[in-house]
Amino acid sequence: MATPSVDEFLGKLVGDLGAAMSAALVGIGDKLGLYKALAGSGGLTPAALAQKTHTDERYVREWLSAQAAAGYVDYDPGSGMFSLNEVQVLAFADESSPAHFLGGFQVTRSVYKDLDKIVEAFKTGKGVGWHEHDADLFCGTERFFRTGYNANLVPAWIPALEGVDPKLRKGAKVADVGCGHGASTIVMARAYPSSTFTGFDYHEPSVVAARAAAAKAGLGDRVRFETAAAKTFPGTGYDLVCIFDALHDMGDPVGAARHVRESLAPDGTWLLVEPFAHDALEKNLNPFGRIFYAASTTICTPASRSQEVGLALGAQAGPKRLEAVCREAGFTRFRKATETPFNLIFEAKP
Known about the structure:
Distance between the termini: 45 Å
Structural class: alpha/beta
Number of helices: 14
């Protein structure tokens, strides 16, 4: 790759600095409901948006100008009004959209809040547990990944597994390990009313939030959430065990995988979802890899280092390393079932 000129490289840094600053401004728009107020309005002046959201017009005008410069909102110089186009609505104002992105920005804000902890971990080699992060991480992760689960889990990922969809429709026993706030568990429970689901997570506040979300969704009779670690969650005879975007965070992923295998019914299936990655580093040097390596540096690797073994697979482990973990844990069958730009979806069987 040719070395860029100084001007070219500084141009890249200008763009990156603007993006980093914009993450904070996106948080302002999220917390104050500015995006949702703009959505479907047909365009508003700063004064009108301020009035609609009970905020100060001068601040709102500056925020809107910055958002327009970022391309996050549209500006019409003739009318002096700002608006969201259809794509911007999907990204910033529609929580049900598969393109909704506010959760990702919320995760980014948590990284900045926890920066001193990560710097200290770099010096000592010790870890920073998931539970030690700012709460924006827990909420942002749920919001960010929920969009992918809504779009893909029932329509594509489960049907890609051998015989699992018919089992769930008939009535199956499912464990969702590392469930966080329960987004994946609830998506499955809604789609398969004949099956029962238990979500497990070691982080008690997330379990409490998941229980509240299930109650709000009216699924309390078929969905339970319990505080338990991946290597010790209770129960056997599960037809399906799921781990979504969490195995690489675990200190002992082989031990967790072994416990999953032991908890499965003889013909059960492990659905393992991990961030998309190639096996070779050079193939991951792209915008997706940039996001995942950054998250892995500040969240995933420190989480694993904080636990026993501390294998630190990282968010870009790749298929070969993930298969090696599963084989070491005793799984005899392992295959990639499908993929998205953000995820690899694996099927493992005893």
